[in-house]
Amino acid sequence: MNAIVRAARAFPGLFFDDGKLALEVLALLACSALLANAELVQSWYSTMLLVAGTLILLLENLVRTARAVRRSQTVTPSSQP
Amino acid sequence: MSSWMQGAPQMAAAFLGSSVEAIEAMTIVLAAGAVRGWRSALMGSAGGLVTLAAMVVLFGSALAAIPIDYLQIAVGTVLLLFGIRWLRKAVLRSAGVVALHDEDAIYAAQRNTLQSSERSAARWDAVAALTAYKAVVLEGVEVVVIVIGVGTVGNMILPASIGALAACALVAGVGALLHRPLTRVPENTLKYGVGIMLTSFGWFWFGEGIGMRWPYGDAAILGLMFVLFVASALMVRCIRRLHELPDRERIEARS
């Protein structure tokens, strides 16, 4: 029973490693869909938003993760006597 | 012939993605079999495969009833989230921020866990069967998502399924021959490539679903892959530099 519960808990992790990044990507997709259906805006704007937006979100997440890892590595050795 | 040529990217994405997942599942099944007995581990794996087959039949027939636009949006969203997750992990590993996936370490850890749990006297070992079942189902779900994701929309489910089955058969065959985890496969490179492919497919299908018109039609997928490859290569360099910068805080702390 425990194994089934653990498996069920692991399931969302297949899709979302970082919940914040997943939410940001979903928000970007919603914005792209809105822009694509707006008649006043040229269609390639939404294409640019989708592609460039995803890359920017990914880069921001990578920088944040790398800084967090660095910070944890900095704190650990200096705290040792 | 031309439809097979058109299905080549889907087949390649399914083959590469499934190889990674099959290797991960195989490592755990091998550990369970070696420590607790092969019969239960193989029964658990077979149970996992039956569960996956049922999922494919269930979802496959349900997907056929969904209008194409909604299907493109749903599949595009799932592939994009899936691809970005793989790409993020691959870039962090390539830049040295996160340790590379080590099948040997996973195999050893799994063996220790299984050895420490109490073994039943009966020939049937529930722990081994459940461990193998869980590994096959969890890793297999990712294979199913990849196959359905890259294959459904363009009516390329057959090439994608063949790619996935070939990868699983190859890994299972090699694993059965060697009886140890496949450590020499460049898993991070595979994950990197699949991350690029899945993200590009995700962009493309989501864009089609919301009414975007991609330049050059289906060939735009190759252009998107190229853009993503260049961008992610730059990201690896940027993140590596950020990670390896002289640590001013650490120097100050020491002085």
Structural write-up:
The complex is a heterodimer of chains A (81) and B (255). By secondary structure, chain A is mostly helical. Chain A has one domain. Chain A has three helices and no strands. Chain A is flat. The N and C termini of chain A lie far apart (45 Å). The mean pLDDT of chain A is 80. Chain B has 255 residues and is an all-alpha fold. Chain B has one domain (2-245). Chain B has ten helices and no strands. Chain B has helices at residues 2-6, 8-36, 38-64, 68-94, 103-116, 126-151, 157-178, 187-209, 220-244, 248-254. Chain B is globular, with a radius of gyration of 21 Å. Chain A binds chain B through residues 3, 6-7, 10-11, 14-18, 21-22, 25-26, 29, 32-33, 36-37, 43, 46-47, 50-51, 54-55, 58-59, 61-63, 65-67, 69-70, 74, 77-78, and chain B through 73, 77-78, 80-82, 84-85, 87-89, 91-92, 95, 97-98, 130-131, 134, 137-138, 141-142, 145, 199, 203, 206-207, 210-214, 224, 227-228, 231, 235, 238-239, 242-243, 247, 249-250, 253-254.
